[in-house]
Design brief:
This protein has about 240 residues and is of the alpha/beta class. It contains seven helices and twelve strands. It has a six-stranded mixed beta sheet with strand order 2-1-3-4-12-11. Strands 5, 6, 7, 8, 9 and 10 form a six-stranded mixed beta sheet that branches. The chain binds glutamine. Glutamine binds next to helix 2 and strand 8. The site of glutamine has 12 residues, from helix 2 and strand 8.
Length: about 240
């Protein structure tokens, strides 16, 4: 078995080590003897989504996000078909925001890709700090770091989970992130996946099942240290 991972705009969207998510995905595949190919897509390059099994869209400051959004708009059709067809996508913070209809900043309104019927609005108080989320998808709490001025309103979509400590989508709704088909959008940096191996394996399993169209059971890894680190952050924050 093998997976092809697409990293979109690593030069523009790589806040707080979002690139570490790629290393984590590759390493956990390698440990299981599953081959991983990486395709880095740089600004201005066209994307053949039919070649990708798992896509990462990281976070960025408003400026980088605006640029990435311009490039990604040219690829909108392909990305939309990829998501609707069950392709696995992890979108972090700025990347999560630009999947929506718009992000209204203090200066301008950035028109988003409209792949999700959600929107984001800038507020002067930045929502910053460690965050702990309880998700129905995972046994362990999902932990990370958030730093965003945008508040994301997700309507009736299911969230990734409930905020146990921190701010999440709006700082008020008690919800963090979004889940739609095989897409996860979240504000969690840190990077997310090394801190939350369960989330990493969830994405890998989904991607393999979608590619090979059969039930996949991933071999267990020795995650003692990872779990200890996750527990430490969760207990410290709550
Ligand atoms: N520019 C966005 C905001 O401040 C996203 C920042 C980020 O990716 N951390 O809301």
């Amino acid at each position: 078995m093998e997976l092809t991972i697409g990293h979109l705009y690593p030069d523009l969207l790589n806040l707080y080590g979002d690139r570490g998510n790629i290393q984590c995905l590759r390493k956990r595949l390698a440990w299981r003897g599953i081959e991983a190919r990486l395709i880095e897509v740089h600004a201005g390059e066209s994307i053949d989504f039919s070649k990708l099994d798992l896509v990462l869209l990281g976070g960025g400051s408003d400026r980088e996000q605006e640029l990435a959004c311009q490039y990604l708009k040219r690829e909108r059709k392909g990305l939309c078909a990829y998501v609707e067809g069950g392709g696995v996508l992890l979108a972090i913070c700025g990347g999560y925001q630009l999947l929506g209809n718009y992000y209204k900043t203090n200066r301008i309104a950035i028109e988003g890709l409209g792949i999700l019927d959600i929107h984001t609005e800038w507020k002067p108080k930045r929502l910053t700090g460690d965050i702990v989320v309880k998700s129905r998808l995972f046994h362990s709490p999902v932990v990370g770091f958030e730093n965003h001025s945008g508040r994301t309103y997700i309507g009736n979509y299911p969230s990734l989970g409930k905020v146990a400590s921190g701010y999440g989508n709006t700082g008020r709704s008690g919800k963090e992130g979004i889940v739609y088909k095989n897409l996860i959008g979240t504000y969690l940096h840190g990077p997310l996946l090394p801190k939350n191996p369960e989330v990493c394996d969830y994405l890998l399993k989904r991607a393999l099942q979608h590619k090979y169209q059969k039930r996949i059971t991933l071999g267990t890894l020795c995650d003692g240290l990872e779990r200890q680190a996750n527990r430490y952050i969760a207990e410290r924050a709550v």
